[in-house]
Structures are given as C-alpha cells and as structure tokens.
Design brief:
alpha+beta; Four Helix Bundle (Hemerythrin (Met), subunit A); four-stranded mixed sheet; three-stranded antiparallel sheet; 9 helices; globular
C-alpha cells in the first residue's frame, strides 16, 4: 500500500499521535509534581518515568531508526529502558523531573510531526502503511492505560472525572450461545498496524462450544464468594491457592466488606459494588476458580477470537465483532470515555454475529491460553515486544477494557500478563464444552 493509494494515512497517523498525547497530558497534568514522582505501588513506575519513557521510545524509533538522527540525550536512554530497570527500582534512578520530562516529550513530538509531513510512508517494513508511527501511537496509549492503573492504585482525593456510561442496553435473550465447530481464520496478515504477535493469519479448528453472552458480573462473582469460593481449595489451581492463602485474598482487588455490603475503591471514590457491571480486578487464578465453581471453564484464546470474529453466514473473520468498521461509542466502551465498565448487556450494536456482547471494551478478558507465537511468527520490529514473553508464565487476555484506546484494540489484538495480576482492568467470561 502506498500513501498515494491511501491519502488519509498520514492524517490518520497524526491524529493517533495527537490523541495519545492529549491523553498523556490529561493523566499527568491531573496530579501534583509530588504525585508524578512518587511510586504509588511497587508494581508500577512513577508516572514521571512513563512520561519520559513515552518520549524516549518515540525518539529512538522515529527520530533514530526512521530518520537516522543522533540521540538528543544519549545519557538518559538507559534510564528509560524497560528491560534494564524493574519497576520497583525506577524511583531510585536519576530521572528527568516533571518539567524536564514534559519539555523532552514535547520537543520529540514536534520533530516527529515534521518528520511525518515529509517522510514517504512506504519503502521499508517500518514505513509501509505508516507502521512505525502507528506503533508509537499504540505504545503511548498502552502506557496511558498503565498510568490509569497507577491512578487507580494512588491513594488520595479523586483527580480524574468522566461521565457515567450511558450505553445502549438490552437484556440478553440468552445467557450463552453455541459457537459451531470447524475452522476459522485467526490472527491477521492484513491489518496495517497490527503487532507481531497478531500475525500471521492462519487457520484454526475448534470443537463446538458454549460461551457466555456477557462477561461475568459482580453479582455472579459475589455468589462465588458467598458460597465459600475463596475457602475451598478444590476450585483453585495450586499456585493460585497458595497466592490467596499467602496474601489473605478473599475478594477482587479494591473490594471490602462493610455494613453487610461490598464496597469498592475506584479512582479515589468509595462506592457500593454495582451488581450489574462486569467484575473487575481479578487475577487469572480467580477467574479460573470461579469458572470451575460454576461448572464451566475459561475459553481458550482461539475460542474467544472465534466467538468475536467468525461470521458463520459468510465463513470469514471480521475485524471486530460488529463488522469491519472502526469502533465508535455505539459499539464499545473504549478510550477512557468512562472510568468504569458499562453494565453487562450494553452495546447491542457491538455484538458478534452469534449475539455475544462486550467482547471489545469494558474489561480485558482472561483466557485459558498461555501466550505463545502463532505458526509462522516473525519478531518485528524487535524481539522484546512479544517474543521474550512467550511461554507458560503469561496468560492471554483479549478484547480490551474501558481504559484501552481503539488504536490499540481490535479483534486480533493480544494482551498478556502474569496470572497473579489483579491491578489491571481484567475480568472474564466463561465457556463450556458441548
């Protein structure tokens, strides 16, 4: 594809970069310099590290790899190498201060916009389809989601606001749907800004299975708690049972029991847990235990993608459950428009051909699968994006959450994390064999 055949490509890249930077600014301007430099959890970086890291990666890839320019500040590059310094150690580094980090990121961005205006978006794997610019926009949005997680972990008065979800809602007609067995196309070879772990498109075969039409709700999860789910080892994988015993876990993260009801802390606000929202902030082990308790299981990654993309009427895989059109607010809860999931059953216009809802947005959904390469996988543009994480240590999440921007969310997008992780915006739905 050339920029001449797709004249809007340059504008799309510029808009994606601008949207990401506006969100970065909103997340970092909302707090004091003291909050920016503090570490709110050993699981997360100080917000000021993320801010400068965003600019550093943009400089290294676009001004360095694409434009071939010398590094503006080579002495800081090691400070913002995510593989060189664990998150828990980053506060001890001589990081750029808030004002310096903002100036640095702004200077890089100004040069990048100049580069985008005059660079042919073709001629190399990095430039074809504007991939490098799309990769950097996705990288920044992924760090924006990370920074939103840090905001959730932060103690103190609320600093973020957003309207409540007002999504179209229709009660599901059925609790689960049958997904027919047979082959389907998984992954992509055509999505211009897809990342290496989404590639290549390939054929997968699944047996028929049943899958929930909506994610598991807080009310359903409370029934698991009330039935002693956290006290019964038979529901738990051995490492998960060890984790909840060691840490005294008895409910999703940020929940507490008070006055006979469940409360949760959400971005500095304490509120009753809403029964009809998808459950949030549960680990893979918690999701797996609930599914066992319910007599079901987590869907595999292939089953999840088949439920989300496969159209039985045509036999082809769509970009999104609703079709090939980019997401808009009628389809899914994305882009931090809201600071919570919409209630289960929302967005009927975003349903898959089989009637499965909220597969995109609201909550990341744990699957049963380990994070592994697809047949024919090729690391691009660097091994550290995906390849070094492949293996049984990481479980796959699919579908995105309310904290994910559409540029970093599609029917083929793959996320992964350790099965103990709970601070992420994670939920799940269940499946069962026929």
């Amino acid at each position: 594809m050339t920029t001449e055949s797709h004249p809007g490509l340059r504008e799309r890249a510029a808009a994606a970069l601008a949207a990401a930077r506006a969100r970065t600014a909103a997340l970092t301007d909302a707090v004091t310099d003291q909050d920016l430099t503090a570490q709110h959890s050993p699981l997360m970086s100080p917000l000021v590290w993320d801010l400068a890291h965003i600019g550093n990666q943009e400089e290294l890839w676009l001004l360095g790899r694409v434009a071939g320019r010398e590094s503006m500040h080579p002495e800081i590059n090691p400070l913002y190498d995510a593989f060189e310094h664990p998150r828990s150690e980053r506060p001890k580094l001589p990081l750029l201060g808030p004002a310096e980090a903002r100036r640095y990121a702004a200077e890089v961005r100004g040069r990048v916009f100049d580069l985008l205006e005059r660079t042919p978006l073709e001629g190399s794997a990095l430039l074809d389809d504007g991939f490098a610019f799309g990769m950097i926009a996705q990288h920044e949005q992924q760090h924006d989601e990370t920074m939103l997680i840090t905001h959730q972990l932060r103690r103190g008065e609320p600093v973020l606001t957003a309207p409540e979800p007002d999504a179209p809602y229709e009660a599901p007609l059925v609790a689960e749907v049958l997904v027919p067995g047979g082959p389907f196309t998984m992954g992509t070879s055509a999505e211009p800004w897809s990342l290496d772990n989404e590639r290549p498109a390939h054929t997968r075969d699944t047996a028929p299975f049943w899958i929930d039409t909506v994610p598991v709700t807080n009310a359903a999860y409370q029934a698991f708690i009330a039935d002693g789910g956290y006290r019964e080892p038979r529901w738990w994988a051995a490492p998960g049972w060890a984790q909840i015993r060691e840490h005294g876990i008895g409910a999703p993260l940020f929940w507490r029991r008070e006055g006979g009801q469940w409360l949760r802390r959400r971005f500095g606000v304490t509120e009753p847990v809403p029964d009809d929202e998808p459950v949030l902030h549960v680990s893979w082990y918690e999701a797996d235990a609930y599914a066992r308790w319910a007599g079901r299981r987590l869907p595999t990654e292939a089953e999840w993608e088949k439920a989300a993309r496969h159209d039985p009427a045509t036999g082809r895989s769509r970009r999104y459950p609703w079709g090939d059109a980019d997401p808009d607010p009628v389809h899914a809860n994305l882009g931090q428009r809201h600071l919570r999931p919409a209630r289960a059953g929302s967005y009927p216009a975003g349903a898959s051909p089989l009637g499965v809802r909220q597969l995109i947005g609201d909550v990341w959904e744990w699957t049963a699968s380990d994070f592994l390469p697809y047949p024919g996988f090729r690391a691009f543009p660097y091994r550290e994006y995906s390849e070094v994480f492949f293996g049984p240590e990481h479980k796959v999440l699919r579908g995105g959450s309310f904290a994910v921007d559409p540029v970093a969310c599609r029917g083929t997008f793959r996320n992964w994390d350790l099965p103990v992780r709970r601070q992420i915006f994670s939920g799940f739905r269940t499946a069962r064999d026929v």
